Amino acid sequence: MSKENEFDYVIVGAGIAGCSTAYFLSKYSNSVLLIDKNENVAFGASGAAGAFLSPLLGKPNNFKDLISKSLKFSTSFYKEVNSKSFLNEGVCRIPKNNEDRKKFESYESYMDFDYKVLDDGYLFDIGSWINPNEICNLLTEKINKKLKYKIDSIVKKDDIWILNNEVKTKNLILCTGANTKLIEEKYFDIRAVWGQKIDILTSDCISFNYHKECSVSKAVKSQFQDLYNVSIGATHHRFECNENIDDCSNCYTEDIINEDSKKLIKLADDIVHFNNIDDIKINNIKIGARASSPDYFPIIGSLIDSRKSFERFPHLINGTHIKESMLEKIENLYVVNGVGGRGFVLSPYLANELVESIINNKKIDENITPYRQFKRWAKKQKKQK
Ligand SMILES: Cc1cc2nc3c(=O)[nH]c(=O)nc-3n(C[C@H](O)[C@H](O)[C@H](O)COP(=O)(O)OP(=O)(O)OC[C@H]3O[C@@H](n4cnc5c(N)ncnc54)[C@H](O)[C@@H]3O)c2cc1C
């Protein structure tokens, strides 16, 4: 397609998921449009993130495998795109208590990344920190964007998706994070986990990224003499305001914001032992809604059309197993969502998987497609009848 407002690919949502998707798609197509309701990229959860990249420790399981694979991928990706703000200087993981230390030690033979003992903890060279705005801007500098443009409706007509009765596209990719109103499928279950991170000015020159009960970034020299910028994140809250994901001020009150800030400084102090805690100045507070699936795995790929799938396979209601490839899909509609509290670790890897599946038919791992949510939901339908 070439006419104004007609594209081969439109991505809604310019957080790290949408920006990574746009970046990989643009290698195959020059007809890509990235849309966001905000005035710039990285204004949603992505703008609120730390954003720390840290390994997941534990015994082997599918989730840990996914995080380790994604962490390796994203680390080399952020280096390859030459992100200036990507500080791959390691993260020191500190056990919370003796029990936690024993757990750490028991994971020794399952570590996916090299580490050495440092202070009270374990230093993993793979750990890093990235500036969300810088990376989202860098990934999309050559991408056609339509900002300050909220999508209220998506309709399919003659194999073309029409957005707000105005923008047309052959393929639509929804990367809208915690705002899932455009997706009408009932099985698609994403919950908002709100949280806060703060940036502080301190005279303490913190020499590593740390993670214990919160993450603390390595100190970066500020514009003020003898003062450093340090990021501390993050808190977690679930509120009943999923209906209005754009404004959580009724739930996330000033009191909670102030309590969260104090809590983060206290948790950071427990790690770095500030020389003078009273000397700390908070110079930035960011709040955002992480998009989490109930099983914490992300959700990537084509959406299943539940109505058509039930029409074609009525026995789905009895729990009959139907292979994912046999189910009816909503043609040319894709999602990258549910990246939870690890969006900067997962998104580049997942976006690449999605683009390779769209362009080169690469199969996406069933653990991360919408299929698992559909299966669970389909089984419940009989009980509810
Ligand atoms: C406080 C906090 C700290 C965090 N710390 C870390 C960390 O240290 N490391 C890490 O990896 N992750 C961290 N995360 C998680 C990370 O920020 C998220 O996983 C990631 O940003 C999600 O990216 P996203 O693109 O899916 O969603 P978002 O960044 O929320 O982007 C979705 C975009 O879609 C747009 N949108 C939605 N609906 C519409 C519509 N109808 N029309 C137009 N635009 C629309 C929104 O405006 C938004 O810009 C943190 C999150 C929070 C809140």
The hetero molecules present are: flavin-adenine dinucleotide
User: What would the principal axes of the Cα set say about the shape?
Assistant: globular
Number of domains: 2
Which CATH first-tier class of the largest domain would you pick?
Alpha Beta
| CATH architecture call of the largest domain | 3-Layer(bba) Sandwich
User: What value does the average pLDDT take?
Assistant: 94
Note the main attributes of this structure.
single chain; 385 residues; alpha+beta; FAD/NAD(P)-binding domain; 2 domains; 9-stranded mixed beta sheet; 8-stranded mixed beta sheet; 9 helices; 28% helix; globular; binds flavin-adenine dinucleotide
Question: What is shown here, in short?
Answer:
This protein has 385 residues and is an alpha+beta fold. It is built from nine helices and 19 strands.
